Amino acid sequence: MDAVAVRQPEMAHEPHPRESFIRHYIFSIDHKMIGKQYFLTTMFMALVGGAMAMLMRAHLGWPDNGVLSPEQYLQAVTMHGTIMIFFFLTVMLTGGLGNLLIPLMIGARDMAFPFLNMISYWTFVPGVITILLSYFVPGGPAGNGWTAYAPLSAVPAAEGGAGLGQTLWIIAILFVVISSLFGSLNFLTTVINLRTRGMSMGRLPLTIWGAFVTAVLALLSFPVLMAALGLLLLDRLAGTSFFEASNLIIGGAASTHQGGDALLWQHLFWFFGHPEVYILILTPMGVVSDIISTFSRKPIFGYKAMVLSLAAIGFLSFLVWGHHMFVSGMHPLLGAAFMGSTIIIAIPSAIKTFNWCTTLWHGRIHFTTAMLFAIGFVSVFVTGGLSGIFLAIAPVDLYLHDTYFIVAHFHFVMASASLFAILAGTYYWFPKFFGRMMNETLGKIHFALTFLGIYGTFYPMHFIGLHSNDRRLYETTAYPFLSHTGPVDVFVSLSAFLLGFAQLFFIANFLWSLKYGPVAGDNPWHANGLEWTTTTPPPHGNWEGALPAVYRWPYDYSVPGARDDYVPQTVQAIPLVAAAGAGGGEA
Amino acid sequence: MAAVGTHEAEQTAASRWAGGRSPFDVGWGKLMMWLFLMSDALTFSGMLVGLWTLRLGSPTWPDRAHIMNIRLVGVMTAILICSSTTMALSVYETRRGARRRAVWFLTATILAGFAFAALQATEWTHFILDGARLNTNPWGVPAFSFTFFIITGYHGLHVVGGCVYLWAMAHRIAKGLSGAGGLEVAGLYWGFVDLVWVFIWPSIYLL
Lengths: 587, 207
Known about the structure:
The complex is a heterodimer.
Chain A: H1 21-26, H2 31-61, H3 70-106, H4 114-133, H5 164-193, H6 206-237, E1 249-250, E2 253-254, H7 262-279, H8 282-296, H9 303-316, H10 332-344, H11 346-360, H12 369-392, H13 394-400, H14 404-434, H15 440-466, H16 486-516
Antiparallel strand pairs in A: 1-2
Helix pairs in contact in A: 2-3, 2-4, 2-16, 3-5, 3-6, 3-14, 4-5, 5-6, 6-7, 6-8, 6-9, 8-11, 8-12, 8-14, 9-11, 11-12, 12-14, 12-15, 14-15, 15-16
Chain B: H1 7-12, H2 28-57, H3 64-67, H4 70-96, H5 99-129, H6 142-175, H7 180-206
Helix pairs in contact in B: 2-6, 2-7, 4-5, 4-7, 5-6, 6-7
């Protein structure tokens, strides 16, 4: 009756005719091609978002030169945040890495619903086009921050970019939201239903655990943003006033909108917004765990603790959104509750950090570029995490709110950490998907400059933040108490340019290696994951012949008495003594 | 589709979650529908939270019993709830192989859906004729009318969309293209539309 369960299209057995160019490269339903489409599109968006950052720093370092007008400056800030968060990090981690890795790492032929996967990408593309279009409309793009706080975002006459630019912003984000929802439906269904024989949940690589919890967060938080954006759009276009309070005076005239509540937007937005920042960090945590384990040639320390802390962070992420709103006039008791739940997040985060360090402890560390970025991830995550504890304390936050201190905090803990993991993952998995190795020398130059650039850019921001430099100030020189921070701003700007310059090494390396890199074998890193057991690059359907069966967890490195220092997940008969077991034991 | 419980699967599946099978014994379609409904529930939650925030923040709120035809809405609710029964019967008949009867029950479900939507349209018409608009209404609390239109409108879209979905399923059942499994997935959606109304109904009309 109910013909259920494991639906594995047996594509590998069919001699598939050569697909047309359009079916293969444009409207592909192969998760690897879709993943590459996402990867390249989001990398392009990262360049756009990065260019915005360069413009901001060019202005802030030398505010008297008039690189940007006040309006343009706010628009650059907004578009930098919007593009980096929605169009680069979120989609790169889910659409890009998630698509590329999930089926290969769990032993599936493709996603559960490949067609929906394609639709998901082609819902994302109109979003990209819409947000880029918003640069070319009268008034320019949105300019009131990536959080689109009402009423600035709800009143078209509020400021330059609040007209058509803001409307296009909302529509673009709606596209991304719907695309991400399609994606998370696919990811969850795939991980739950399509794991190959023997790939129990307790043997999943942590990358997949990260992607899985991420998909849960996306599934539960994006719809709330979708509702909020829909209501905001109606406020702007149809005359409702969900987010516009009564008696607003705009340009000297009273607004016709009545009865709304601007705080409602903040609550709905941050109910999404906080899980969102964990959407940007959980997959990276998984990626980094896998890479650190591989290049330390040691099992990951505390696998179960790692999984539980991922889940705990995911769960807590829905209970802490109020810590973004300590200064919003929220009831202090409510603020105290949010403060408590926020501080608790330090526990699972610390568990993860200690476990990464313990995995490195006494390992035989191979300092590949991927490993350097993974270790760099731990560094920036800790730096940003520590300042997070300051910000979690409501009374301290009252002082630090909206200063450069918070800019430093989230750029370390979320943006840089996420970026480092994406770069680590790219160096690590590039050989599998493109069949060639990336250049290690260029990679190490890239890492060194990026690491210096990140710390040079964001570390001094702590100090100008403590000095009460508001993060949205157009011109610091106008305020006497900020007159001493000018040189720091110059240093930060120069570091930011170094950071931007460093990425050219990555782009050059990526493009050069595509064509001229040394040919990679199936398993160049001697890693255990399932993705390394298939040919490079993986064929349509991922494995020639039958799907592999899994007999162990992916962290059997340096098993005592073993012939090699790695035992792939597909190895059944152990040419070695005991130890390995059925996954979970720490060697 | 390969069935669960094949020789291969049984050999290695020490537990439901050991891989090589669906842990809940459901196909991807049904699982995906469950997940979609969870996310859609949160979309509705966002809207209802919006309604209650604005309502509790407003000094007054119009008395619905004088403005709306509560009896008519009661009939609408009854029709929608009954349509879940015919939906379930349709799945039951498909499972027994009685496709003809299944299609009849589906038709009844679709008609009920349209009846609900038609009564909702009547309700809207009265409301609009009384002077209610998105940004204003005669009872003085703008949030009262715009929350009403947006939330019932979004639910109404779900009902009409569901009717189209069920109509497509009726076609597929009649032609033998879909089985009880596929229809059950559609039934999940229909049950959800019904369930959401049970939250909207008191929020807008009763409380």
